[in-house]
Amino acid sequence: MDEELEKISKKLLQGRQYRSMKLECREMGTPDSEERIVEGYAATFNEPYILWEEDYYIFKEQIDSRAFDKCDLSDVIFQYNHVGRVYARISNKTLEVRPDGHGLFIKANLGGTGEGRSLFEEIKGGYTTKMSFGFVVRGERMESIKDEATGKRIYIRTITDFEKVYDVSAVSSPANDGTEISARSWCEGVIAGLEAERLKAEETEKRRKLESDERERELALLEFESN
Q: At what angle do helices 181-226 and 3-12 cross, to 10 degrees?
């Protein structure tokens, strides 16, 4: 890994991060049943999504199909906007969180409390359509390629090993399908550093060209004077 990619990797491995995906709901049992089930995928495997795009850079991320193999999923909780009340959790069997062939599958029964049933109705009515999960990454792979058509530098992060998933949450104001505020925050910091390096490289190249042109002029003048 080159120095530039190493800097980005260190940024990405710092602290808890969040990503958002589509949330669905379905009713189970009889109309009088207390079960109120919401389900969806907190993450999908090997499907790159854009975290951030700037004039000169594109940051993408994808999740390896083995990334959850050693992940701690021992007591994930289901919340709203990652704070406050717990609506479901693994330890009391109202929440299921497991990797399958498609991604990290989530199924929560929100029927245990009045607040949970109200949240279910919000999701069912289409007022809340996304969920987000909080996690820490233990391992990743970074690569960088240049898009010859646009001239942009593309950085691709593949998450290979999740350390822990803390919670999944229905969210009221998520960012784009695959990205959250935490992703944007590190992208902004990394981009600032990359932009400074890019401008420095441009300035170095300008000075090199000016010096080269000056040497050529001096050689041409010497050749002219010798004749």
A: 160
